[in-house]
Design goal:
Aconitase, domain 3; about 15% strand; 14 helices; five-stranded parallel beta sheet; about 375 residues
């Protein structure tokens, strides 16, 4: 391609070919969808805006493509405490993506917002928690793309065939045996497993979780380790894996789990309680609303419930209850919002947020199970 299809497509092709050369890809393959990171002004800055606006002059996506969370709720940014300067920069980013035809799905859970891939489909997704969920739970195939490579793939409708697009790269290397994991500590288990396995694909023995729990577990494992996929024994699997099939076996019992949870616990004095990393599902919103229904709010701290706008619209009754206790925010989350300009001490039920907030958000962070946080904000 020498530019006859436009400069943006030429640049996209050059980027994907360069990646393919680095990783030994033999060809480009078609993708079903893309999900692009680099959406918050906090994370990409002025240089990122200029790069996006330059691409947007003629770049147009050729497959369904979504965007990662922005740094603010597009309609409730003032109530979050976001400055007008941040708002203006953030809107330029959203407008650039819109000009290129990306869908206004600003979420880390596109599979809950109308874009759920099927088993075996090839994708170019960038968000770490979405990538690990797509590979591990849905059976789709995607590498953990960077923002520019995901955008290039969205424009061309193709990506380089390497990594997790290939059968041989999807085989687990390490066996992790989890023992005695209480439901409320699943995010901590993911946090611990990610640290233990690093960049290797683990097979997790001892998982018995619903989709929402996989969402939380996978987000944490991807945050503390460079993990974009794990395997686990599914219903109907007849032969359990043998230890000799792996290069290492790691056993994580209740003692290790409780020690990790205690280390993440932090203090009890919070400015903000932040729930929804990854974005809350309909089931999670309704479950929290059922706990809080009939209780009264304690106005001793601010509260954010983060979700996608699609899920927000499908749960009006739950949203109405949760709004009595805090802000129900769309398009954003506590990790990519300019939280450090508003708060200094945040409590969260997310293993991913517990990993990122101390550095990316400059927060003194406290991990608590969801139920404990709900009881702390109500009476």
């Amino acid at each position: 391609m020498k530019g006859e299809e436009g400069t943006a497509r030429m640049k996209a092709m050059e980027l994907l070919v360069a990646l393919g050369d680095i990783y030994g890809a033999e060809r480009l393959i078609e993708i079903e969808s893309a999900q692009v990171s680099g959406a918050s002004f906090k994370t990409i800055g002025d240089a990122g805006i200029r790069w996006l606006e330059d691409f947007a002059t003629e770049g147009r996506v050729s497959v369904p493509a979504m965007v990662n969370p922005l740094g603010m709720d597009l309609t409730r940014w003032r109530s979050m405490g976001v400055s007008s300067q941040f708002y203006e920069k953030q809107m330029r980013i959203a407008q650039a993506y819109g000009a290129m035809g990306l869908l206004p799905v600003y979420s880390c859970t596109p599979y809950l917002a109308g874009h759920r891939p099927r088993d075996g489909q090839h994708l170019a997704w960038a968000e770490s928690s979405a990538t690990v969920f797509a590979n591990s739970v849905l059976g789709a195939r995607t590498n953990r793309e960077g923002g520019p490579s995901a955008l290039a793939a969205a424009i061309l409708g193709k990506t380089a065939e390497y990594g997790l697009h290939l059968d041989e790269s999807r085989k687990p290397k390490v066996l992790v045996r989890l023992e005695s994991v209480p439901t409320h500590l699943i995010p901590v288990a993911g946090y611990l497993v990610g640290k233990a396995v690093g960049n290797r694909i683990p097979h997790i023995d001892g998982l018995n979780m619903i989709a929402d729990q996989h969402k939380s577990f996978g987000a944490a494992i991807a945050a503390t380790g460079a993990v974009s996929m794990y395997t686990f024994r599914r219903k109907g699997d007849r032969i359990p894996p043998k230890s000799r099939s792996f290069e290492e076996t790691i056993v994580l019992g209740k003692t290790e789990l409780m020690r990790c949870a205690e280390g993440l616990r932090g203090g009890d004095d919070w400015d903000l309680v932040a729930i929804g990393c990854p974005h809350c599902s309909p089931r999670e919103l309704r479950s929290m609303a059922s706990v809080l229904k009939g209780r009264k709010p304690l106005k001793n701290t601010d509260v954010w419930f983060c979700t996608s706008r699609r899920v927000f619209k499908t749960c009006p009754e739950a949203v109405a209850i949760l709004r009595r206790f805090g802000r129900v925010l769309c398009d954003t989350c506590m990790v990519v919002a300019p939280i450090e300009e508003m708060y200094g001490r945040t409590a969260t039920d997310s293993g991913k947020a517990a990993a990122y907030l101390p550095s990316l958000g400059r927060q003194k962070t406290s991990y608590r199970p969801t139920r404990e946080l709900l009881e702390a904000i109500s009476r």
